[in-house]
Amino acid sequence: MYLLQWGEAAFVICERNDAVPARRILIIAPTSFFADYGCHVRILEHARGLAERGHDVTICTYHSGRDVDGLRIYRTPQIPWRKSAEVGSSWHKLLLDAFLFVLVLRVALRRRPQLLHAYLHEGALIGAIIGWCLRIPLLFDFQGSLTSEILDHRFLCESNPMLRPLQRLERWINRQPAIILANSYHSADLLVRRFAVATERIHVVPDCVDTDRFNPLADGLCEDRERLKADWGIPPETLVIVYLGLLAPYQGIDLLLNAMQMIQSDPNIHLLIMGFPNVERYRRLSRELGIANRITFPGVISYHEAHRMLAAGDIAVGPKISETEGSGKLLTYMAMGLPTVAFDTPVSREYLGDAGVLVPPGDVTAFSRAMMCLARTPDERTERGAALRRRAIDHFHCTVALDAIESAYARIEHEAGDRVDRRQF
After folding, report:
1. For the residues 295-319, what does the mean pLDDT come to?
2. What confidence tier does 422 reach under pLDDT thresholds 50, 70, 90?
3. Diameter of the chain by CA atoms?
4. Most buried of 136, 300, 326, 413 (most Cβ within 10 A)?
């Protein structure tokens, strides 16, 4: 374990600790796990990797979502009027989280976990209360500010009287866990500056990607590329720009469509926007912008098929404009060797480094020009794509994240042992 200086703070960086024993871990996932986007991928890769390393992993989550082979999942009671996956902020989550609290308590009493591993702030709140009652240490996987996300999703506005109490609650939640896993150095710095969390309690565990599966040289991907373009009616010689993720304003989809409108002078560029929800809304917007014939919306893409779909692309885009949330989709682009254009947010800069094409946040004209520049320079596409894949392998492979998580577990165990020794003394 060592420290890395980031700005004025030093954060814990963990190396693999082969002495970490197998442990009983209860994961709290206040979301519709599993669905094919964002934090679900992070939870999946962590849970599956920890189980493969011999840990006894149990997941408590909402009633909606898909089961995953090899993972033990407990779900809340079904709510008849909320059968679809929960995406973003919703008042219905208050009821779902109340059910989840009861579920976590029951499972914790039955399975007696040695550690609570909570995702998202709702999970950390549940874990803090149950962990205190049952004397189980809590580890919180922090993926961005709760109140910033609420504002980004336009669930509340800055003048709403509920915002200040929520900010105080967020500050309290962030200070409860024994260890916080931050998904980026920007998130770690945010915890220190905005929420006054001690740096020694923060471990940086970036999002990860399976670079073996997301591999542009994998068998059959060239055939998949040709077949997919034919299925979608895209001419073989057309250059394809791909996006894979949630479809919402805070993800920058409106800006992406506006940028695409600016390059309609080149008929040999096609935009493939894969994901959900709001598919019909964006199809309608593309028609209003006069670019519907140059955009394809396949809808929901299974995470297990994502590498095959991305193989159809020549360029990838990350138009997300949130300043605090992660952007795991960038890692899949990188692993697939796709040159990537993104808005210059702290997380995008941290993930893509110098190999990415970063433009000022919200600048649609600059985004459009960056896509056009890459479209016209095949050599630069090849060079940037290769550099991004090397970066994904070196810094964001799943083994890096799992090593760091296990080291955080070991630190919690060590500190718990020290507390017992002091009480006995």
Report:
1. 95
2. very low
3. 77
4. 326
| Alpha carbons 14 and 261: distance in angstroms, whole number | 45
For 40-52, what is the mean pLDDT?
A: 95
pLDDT at 202: 95
The answer to whether residues 104 and 13 touch, using CB atoms and an 8 Å cutoff, is no
For residues 172-178, average pLDDT? 96
3-state secondary structure string across the chain: CEEEEECCEEEEECCCCCCCCCCEEEEEECCCCCCCCHHHHHHHHHHHHHHHCCCEEEEEECCCCCCCCCCEEEECCCCCCCCCCCCCCCCHHHHHHHHHHHHHHHHHHHHCCCEEEEEHHHHHHHHHHHHHHHCCCEEEEECCCHHHHHHHCCCCCCCCCCHHHHHHHHHHHHCCCCEEEECCHHHHHHHHHHHCCCHHHEEECCCCECCCCCCCCCCCHHHHHHHHHHHCCCCCCCEEEEEECCCCHHHCHHHHHHHHHCCCCCCCEEEEEECCCCHHHHHHHHHHCCCHHHEEEEECCCHHHHHHHHCCCCEEEECCCCCCCCCCHHHHHHHCCCCEEEECCHHHHHHHHHHCEEECCCCHHHHHHHHHHHHCCHHHHHHHHHHHHHHHHHHCEHHHHHHHHHHHHHHHHHHHHHHHHHHHC
Residue 34, preceding peptide bond in cis (omega within 30° of 0): yes
Query: Which CA distances in Å does 259 have to 289, 369, 421?
Result: 11, 8, 61
Q: What is the pLDDT of residue 2?
A: 39
74: its two tokens: 């407990």
Cα 191 from Cα 224, distance rounded (Å): 43
Contact 54, 406 (CB under 8 A): no
Residue 425: per-residue pLDDT: 34
- For residue 182, give Cα distances in angstroms to 127, 151, 197: 17, 20, 12
220-236 pLDDT, tens digit each:
888 888 888 888 989 88
What's the pLDDT at 16? 47
